[in-house]
């Protein structure tokens, strides 16, 4: 099975923010342990005795919230990049990214969450379909989200896409509706947060320092990038 860990960055309700981002990392089930171990090595630099007490979240790490202020800014920024390098180190063997960055003002009368989720879900579904049709890989997929205020809306949309369809058809390759996890219990959800935060920093502020690490890791085939959607 392919597990797709997803998180959001940016606030739909905040008028001071232009973009909303939904993004994450798709990992083949047998790779999750090794990716987690590499992320733990990053966290170990900040607390070797209580590794799992350290959460890798982009905004708190950069701003110094949630205990990160105790560490120098340079070390915090490098830790974000080190965690993102875990993706580039494993790509494309069982690990690849998907993301949707949406400028809210471009969606007149549309819900940015719905628009971004439709893009993400359909692109992940097409990735699974491509594996099946071209490579004989019949594995299904499941989306795993960080717990958030959008949970109920995402669950509803997932059911609608499966049974009623979305703009381009129906999703056919998901094993189950999206599952929501506490990010404290999942290092992979934390990685999804860092991916989403990287996209948000790039589009909202023109800060490419994190995005540059992962820009070549979005799902692609034959020179065509399928895994990244941007609506300006």
Q: Helix count, per DSSP?
A: 7
CATH superfamily: Ribonuclease H-like superfamily/Ribonuclease H
CATH topology: Nucleotidyltransferase, domain 5
Strand order of the largest sheet: 5-4-1-2-3-8
Cα radius of gyration in angstroms: 17 Å
Shape: globular
How would you spell out the order of helices and strands?
A: EEHHHEHEHEHHEEE
- For the record, the count of structural domains works out to 1
- The share of residues in helices is 40-55%
The biggest sheet amounts to: 6 strands, mixed
- Uncertain runs are none
CATH class membership: Alpha Beta
- The percentage of residues in β strands lies in 15-25%
Distinctive features:
Nucleotidyltransferase, domain 5; alpha/beta; two-stranded antiparallel ribbon; 42% helix; 8 strands; 232 residues
Explain the overall architecture.
The chain has 232 residues and is of the alpha/beta class. The chain has one domain: Nucleotidyltransferase, domain 5 (2-Layer Sandwich). It is built from seven helices and eight strands. The chain has helices at residues 32-44, 58-63, 73-90, 112-135, 151-163, 187-205, 211-214, and strands spanning 2-9, 19-28, 95-103, 141-146, 179-181, 220-221, 224-225, 228-231. It has a six-stranded mixed sheet, with helices on both faces. A two-stranded antiparallel sheet has the order 6-7. Strand 4, helix 5 (151-163) and strand 5 (179-181) form a beta-alpha-beta unit. Helix 1 runs antiparallel to helix 3 (73-90) and helix 4 crosses helix 5 (151-163). The longest helix has 24 residues, at 112-135. The protein starts with a strand and ends with a strand. The relative contact order is 0.22. The model has no long low-confidence stretch (mean pLDDT 91).
């Amino acid at each position: 099975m392919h597990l797709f860990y997803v998180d959001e960055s940016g606030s739909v309700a905040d008028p001071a923010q232009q973009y909303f981002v939904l993004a994450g990392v798709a990992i083949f089930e047998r790779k999750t342990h090794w990716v987690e171990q590499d992320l733990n090595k990053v966290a170990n630099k900040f607390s070797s005795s209580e590794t799992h007490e350290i959460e890798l979240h982009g905004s708190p790490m950069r701003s110094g919230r949630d205990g990160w202020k105790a560490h120098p800014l340079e070390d915090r920024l490098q830790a974000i990049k080190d965690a993102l390098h875990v993706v580039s180190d494993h790509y494309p063997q069982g690990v690849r990214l998907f993301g949707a960055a949406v400028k809210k003002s471009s969606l007149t009368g549309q819900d940015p969450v719905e628009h971004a989720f439709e893009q993400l879900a359909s692109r992940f579904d097409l990735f699974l379909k491509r594996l099946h049709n071209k490579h004989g890989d019949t594995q299904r997929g499941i989306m795993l989200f960080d717990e958030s205020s959008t949970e109920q809306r995402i669950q509803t949309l997932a059911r609608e896409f499966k049974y009623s369809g979305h703009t381009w058809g129906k999703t056919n390759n998901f094993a189950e509706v999206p599952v929501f996890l506490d990010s404290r219990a999942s290092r992979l959800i934390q990685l999804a947060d860092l991916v989403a935060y990287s996209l948000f920093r790039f589009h909202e502020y023109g800060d490419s320092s994190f995005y540059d690490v992962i820009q070549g890791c979005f799902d692609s085939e034959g020179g065509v990038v399928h895994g990244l959607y941007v609506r300006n």
